[in-house]
Design a protein that fits this description.
This protein has helices spanning 7-14, 25-28, 58-70, 74-83, 86-89, 109-128, 172-189, 197-213, 242-245, 273-292, 299-322, 352-358, 387-395, 400-411, 438-454, 456-459; strands at 4-5, 93-94, 134-135, 156-157, 165-167, 229-230, 271-272, 324-325, 328-329, 332-333, 339-340, 366-368, 373-375, 423-424, 432-433. By secondary structure, it is mostly helical. Bound molecules: 2-acetamido-2-deoxy-beta-D-glucopyranose (6 copies). Residues 29-40 have a biased composition (Low complexity).
Length: 470
């Protein structure tokens, strides 16, 4: 799922001297560790200390101190303290999780250096394997590649080298994540030095994928067109994929097809609406950073800027023309009239009407029980919604009571472990998947920081807003 690789490995290779052997966070996160918080939930302190693997810096520690001084509920403060540094504290890193630290880049050169290294490293992978989303540790780390049992017996084309690629599922979302990190870094630092040949090679490969995956399955003479196929089956968690690993046929619309959803599930239809919306937005930002940095004036920057502008509009026009019926966005379409309305909530749903459906019986993957509720997906099953869907819902509302309800629904359902799970049963607080899910943890911390600006009075002792790094 997502562009993943070991950032600690990267940090180790950047840092002076070797670091100690780190505890395995997956095991660590399965039982309560430090002292409980003083609130009714008694949530444990869950940071591996003193943190041999931590890439945490004085500026990230200051955010924790500042927030703890302000948050009025010690349980929410403890959740923030555990979740905010989680990506920097733990070994396996999720690319998306870095968004949480963007506000600190302008004041913390060491974090900025780390993020630039992440971008350079990702550019290297994307330029080589734009269809893949999960990679082995970078060679500089000296860490050995690990065998992915879920990739055994799965055929993927174009073929990949398993010493570099951990798994080659294709998700538009991963490519958007790379573009988003690049523009977030530029926005915070105004440093364009990452826009080197390596980075341009990656961006060119992204446009290659956009061109290839926007095409219909058949050409005018009914030749079947396939640039990428992934068979699933054997060791894969996904069943065998029909049509030779291509999935359901699609027609040209102007949208870009994906093979998998951000949740790792196979798409039913290729044109995933939220991913295309995000792609259109990120391509428009790509043009912005090229323009602001002066790169759009000539050379490859000019070429990329033109393509970005063209595709941003094309994708956006196609989303409006093809996915909307009765004011509800379909989740997936195929350009041939088939639609699938649901949301597996790993994405920000765009509009109010759609959101209402997503958090209701109108979404086949919405479920509500005595313990928990939210939107899920077939990745786990219909009665284990994602806590991330509740986080998204908090972003989507201005209603104080609703925000607090959702916040405490999440806080009440960590099984006493003080970290955010991947999925949570609606029937039982002790039934969940992944005690610790890096992406969900950073998303939670990001949401609390958003409330710190948007609704300080709701969560703080007083009504003064707080922005990290200021
Ligand atoms: C890579 O593939 C080869 C051949 O299938 C297999 O023997 C080997 O264990 C794999 N290595 C890794 C790290 O996945
Ligand atoms: C799979 O993709 C490759 C290109 O990467 C293509 O040559 C091949 O024909 C495709 N196979 C199928 C069954 O679609
Ligand atoms: C822009 O790049 C694409 C491929 O990346 C290439 O096909 C095209 O010729 C380039 N256009 C210009 C004007 O350089
Ligand atoms: C969370 O749990 C507390 C009891 O600890 C309860 O009072 C509250 O209603 C619960 N909130 C939600 C939204 O489930
Ligand atoms: C949730 O589930 C647990 C374990 O199944 C149960 O003991 C508990 O009472 C439930 N809590 C709520 C708020 O329903
Ligand atoms: C609110 O609390 C913060 C942190 O304790 C403090 O710096 C700020 O001055 C307070 N604002 C008001 C208006 O009291």
């Amino acid at each position: 799922m997502k562009l993943t690789f070991s950032v600690v490995a990267l940090a180790v290779s950047l840092a002076e001297g070797a670091r100690a052997q780190c505890p395995d966070f997956t095991t660590y996160s399965q039982s309560p560790q430090g002292n409980p918080s003083s609130g009714p939930l008694k949530l444990p302190y869950m940071r591996p200390s003193p943190g041999p693997s931590s890439s945490s810096t004085p500026s990230t520690e200051k955010v924790i101190v500042d927030m703890k001084a302000r948050l009025k509920d010690p349980d929410i403060a403890r959740l923030f303290e555990n979740t905010f540094p989680n990506t920097l504290d733990t070994t396996v890193k999720y690319f998306n999780s870095f968004a949480t630290y963007v506000p600190l880049l302008s004041v913390d050169p060491s974090l900025a250096t780390l993020m630039k290294a992440v971008i350079n490293n990702e550019a290297r992978y994307v330029s080589q394997y734009p269809y893949c989303g999960s990679f082995q540790p970078p060679p500089e780390s000296g860490l050995a590649p690990s065998l992915n049992s879920h990739a055994v017996g799965v055929t993927v084309n174009p073929p990949v080298n398993n010493q570099t690629v951990f798994e080659c599922k294709y998700e538009i979302d991963s490519l958007c994540g790379f573009l988003k990190l690049s523009r977030s870094y530029y926005g915070a630092t105004k440093d364009a030095s990452f826009m080197n040949d390596n980075w341009y090679a990656a961006v060119n490969q992204i446009f290659r994928v956009i061109n290839e995956q926007s095409q219909g399955s058949f050409d005018a003479n009914f030749n079947f067109i396939s640039y990428y196929n992934w068979t699933g089956g054997n060791g894969a968690l996904s069943p065998a994929v029909d049509n030779g690993g291509n999935g359901e046929p699609k027609a040209y619309t102007g949208m870009v097809g994906t093979h998998h959803r951000p949740s790792d599930d196979l798409s039913v239809f290729a044109f995933l609406t939220p991913a295309n919306a995000m792609l259109s937005v990120e391509l428009s930002h790509l043009n912005d950073i090229l323009t602001q940095s002066g790169q759009a004036k000539s050379g490859q920057g000019k070429n990329i800027s033109t393509q970005a502008t063209t595709w941003s509009k094309r994708v956006s026009d196609a989303v409006w023309a093809n996915t909307l019926v009765d004011n509800i966005f379909a989740y997936e379409t195929n350009g041939l009239g088939s639609r699938y309305v649901m949301d597996d909530a790993n994405t920000h749903p765009a509009y109010v009407a759609t959101r209402k459906v997503l958090l209701s019986r109108g979404n086949p993957y919405f479920a509500q029980g005595k313990n928990f509720s939210g939107a899920g997906g077939p990745h786990v099953d219909a009665w284990h919604p994602w806590p991330m869907s509740q986080i998204s819902a908090i972003y989507g509302t201005d209603d104080d009571e609703e925000i607090l309800n959702r916040l405490y629904l999440i806080a009440n359902n960590t099984a006493g472990l003080g970290l955010i799970h991947e999925s949570q049963s609606i029937y039982s607080s002790t039934d969940y998947t992944r005690s610790w899910f890096a992406w969900a943890n950073s998303y939670f911390a990001e949401m609390v920081l958003d409330l710190a600006q948007r609704k300080p009075g709701l969560i703080f002792r007083n009504d003064t807003a707080y922005t990290p790094g200021q």
